[in-house]
Specification:
By secondary structure, this protein is α/β, with parallel strands linked by helices. It has one domain (6-223): Rossmann fold (3-Layer(aba) Sandwich), CATH 3.40.50.300. Helix content is 38%, strand content 18%. Helix 4 crosses helix 6 (200-223). The longest helix is centred in the last third of the chain and has 24 residues, at 200-223. The structure holds guanosine-5'-triphosphate and magnesium ion (MG). Magnesium ion binds at residues 36-37, 58-59, 75.
Length: 224
Amino acid sequence: MRINRAELQTVCGVTSKLPVNELPEFAFAGRSNVGKSSLINALVNRKALARTSQQPGKTQTINFFLLNEAFYFVDLPGYGYAKVTKELVAKWGKMIERYLTTSRQLRCIFLLVDIRHEPSDNDKAMYAWVVNRGLKPVVIATKQDKIKRSQLGKQLALIRHALGMGNDDLLLPCSSESKQGIAEIWAVMEKHLGVGTASEETKTAAAEENSAAADIKATEDEAR
Ligand SMILES: Nc1nc2c(ncn2[C@@H]2O[C@H](COP(=O)(O)OP(=O)(O)OP(=O)(O)O)[C@@H](O)[C@H]2O)c(=O)[nH]1
Ligand SMILES: [Mg+2]
């Protein structure tokens, strides 16, 4: 999707009141440093809309980015960041929980995990919590550029197994550096937004997405 306008509209700290938005929201969750803010930048094709850092714990607020005046990206603080007090970690957890339980416009939550590693206990707990709330998370395996093509299937199978994902649950690899997988993530959001479903162009894109998803699945199956 072409993004013509992107702005950081609302920043919420631990004690802030969350906005009651009228437009659809897509949220990005995952441990600190997994690449949430980088992915937001890659999706909107901007270098620094969302602030990123090599130091974990960069995003310490819930940030609402308004795109094309039509929908929001919600950048959540990372969990599992050890260098702040337990008290603060707990407050962030509560804030994320408050957002996920009260948002009326959340269309899809993307749960990010690092493609190189087995999901952590925090990742597993987050995934289970989101599933238990009746939300259907789409898991994104980040930093695909850091592994070899030959490792892809094995890593995806490892992540799917560790999180206890069903065969039909979406797991998409991506890289904010090389831009691999970015179009597939957009295809998921476009489906939720119901944009351009009538056009031939979108039908082709959707067919391509389905075939890309089938390819990824085949790679995973091969690795089993
Ligand atoms: N090679 C590579 N590096 C990445 C990728 N995505 C993010 N990074 C790097 O990972 C680090 C963390 O990225 P962020 O986007 O700030 O991570 P975050 O999840 O927003 O982290 P918090 O705000 O602390 O929760 C930065 O140094 C990024 O450059 C990727 O796809 N490939
Ligand atoms: Mg961040």
